[in-house]
Amino acid sequence: EADIYQTPRYLVIGTGKKITLECSQTMGHDKMYWYQQDPGMELHLIHYSYGVNSTEKGDLSSESTVSRIRTEHFPLTLESARPSHTSQYLCASSVVASGGATYNEQFFGPGTRLTVL
Amino acid sequence: KNQVEQSPQSLIILEGKNCTLQCNYTVSPFSNLRWYKQDTGRGPVSLTIMTFSENTKSNGRYTATLDADTKQSSLHITASQLSDSASYICVVSDRGSTLGRLYFGRGTQLTVWP
Predict the structure, then answer these.
(1) How far is CA B71 from the centre of its chain?
(2) pLDDT band at A38; cut points 50, 70, 90
(3) Mean pLDDT, chain A, integer
(4) Which chain A residue's Cα is nearest to B43?
(5) In the predicted model, is pLDDT for residue A98 greater than 50?
(6) Distance linking the first and last C-alpha atoms of chain A
(7) How close, in Å, is residue B39 to chain A by CA atoms?
(8) Considering only CA atoms, which of B9, B10, B17, B11 is closest in space to residue B77?
(9) CA nearest neighbour of A8 among A65, A88, A72, A106
């Protein structure tokens, strides 16, 4: 079991609210990721980070923003939540392999199920 | 376009029976293929990872195979248990970037009945 944590696990909020989904890992991994997953659908990468002060947009356009001030912490923020943001949000981390990686294994958190009314 | 297709979409089997899940991919250049198990409301957990040179890998009752020539993989579950009920996701990584981008299938939803 990987040491990657997400809070809250479930969140129900009203439209227009600002929310922050927390993600932290204790493995010292450099790379961290946020995915969005709808029921029965594949995971879509929305943000990733190579390390502290590095953030990049993923494949799926998202109105959320992220920050990486500390290695272990990668929070995701929605300034004004809308019903279209209802989804499951999964955080993951992986270690950067030096000298040319054969692969980097991603470890996933338990997810946050967000419902915007 | 890099894609990962899984079949069947859903599967119901009786406890104790075996089953095989399929994965076809078009990801290139290929780096590795992983199978994840995702319980309802949880994050995916890695079962196996296979690189280009590997054609089979086992993890307990789970055995994955890889045919890099035909770009196909299968996950075989032996003597299924009720706890095997979950979504099984095939994930392929490319080696075209330092990120090691992952391409996810939609998963096969397996239900094991007593």
Answers:
(1) 13
(2) very high
(3) 90
(4) A110
(5) no
(6) 33
(7) 10
(8) B17
(9) A88
